[in-house]
Task: structure prediction
Amino acid sequence: MAQQYTRKMIREVFVEMLNEKPFDKITIKNIVTKCEINRKTFYYYYENLYSIIHEIFESEIENVIIKYNETHSWEECFIFAARTSIKNKRAIYHIFNSVHREELERYLYSIAGNVMFRYVEDINREIKASEEDAKIIARFYQSALTNMVLHWIADGMKDEPEKIIKRIGLLFDGNIALSLKRSKEI
Amino acid sequence: MAQQYTRKMIREVFVEMLNEKPFDKITIKNIVTKCEINRKTFYYYYENLYSIIHEIFESEIENVIIKYNETHSWEECFIFAARTSIKNKRAIYHIFNSVHREELERYLYSIAGNVMFRYVEDINREIKASEEDAKIIARFYQSALTNMVLHWIADGMKDEPEKIIKRIGLLFDGNIALSLKRSKEI
DNA sequence: AAGGCAGTGTCCGGTTTTCGGACACTGCCT
DNA sequence: AGGCAGTGTCCGAAAACCGGACACTGCCTT
Result:
């Protein structure tokens, strides 16, 4: 554990700052000063500020995958991810309103993809449509889900995750299975 | 800061364990496993378990001295030390009931000494008895105070520190000044 | 517009901190 | 009497951290 302690500290201090001020007001100097480490140590772990954001996204994607493998429930994945986001509401707001909105979108798309592909796969285990069809269907819902979340963020993350889940549930329930069955008939 | 992180962690985990189980049930292996560090790293900082206790005592003595230099009040020093002790009640209980009672006594004696010598010195600044006399008087109260605290610990640290302070205060107030004055007359 | 200033990214290197594996030794357990 | 867990110590190696310097960039000042 002690190994990656400094790396973790840098990440945490960065997110902390991102919760206070926009991305372009944060400097590497700021971070290393607050962490009481040498500036070189920062470069030992990260190339630049951008790569911290990248790492955070990567690890969050991993977390969601782990969550799905544990629960096999997209609902729980969503709540889990949403709760994490709400915790760092302002940080996400600052990423959303900076040059990194693109990265955020890619990240959401990736998360949604991971959940949806696994979810459709789970359902398809019984229906046994072709893998190709399953992928197409998953991708269809992936963008829909991503877009929904993006709107939720743009709207200030006001709605409770559970509320959105219900709404999405109405769009999912039965529909995915139905789509899979239909694609078998074609 | 990051430098001494591991050392601090070892200390904290040790105290944590000492709050759970007696000293002789704690092994170095236990600690390094819980800290997720290499056993060698332990030896990098400490010789053995005993030296952690020693270090803790040393640093606590320092803290009390700092406290006295800030406040010039033995009462506040006492409350400060007692509160720290109560926080780790069971740890102290386990030290008290192990081969390290002796070390604990020496530590208390040292703390009491530091406080009393400074306190008597402060009072003597006005009275101006000889340094020699001041030391004798301080040493007299030092053992008395130590013994009182030892009994407090043996009794399970039940009494509130403030209560004991009042009791000690009755023995101190005026008496020290009086003793100093008398020793001048001899 | 020129100079000052803060932050960046990168170079050199050096020191501190952590690790892995091995050994003999002790005490305990059964 | 033998097995087993923990200890203290040896070796060397690797990872983590640091200090100072450099050129470069963008911003702010006056």
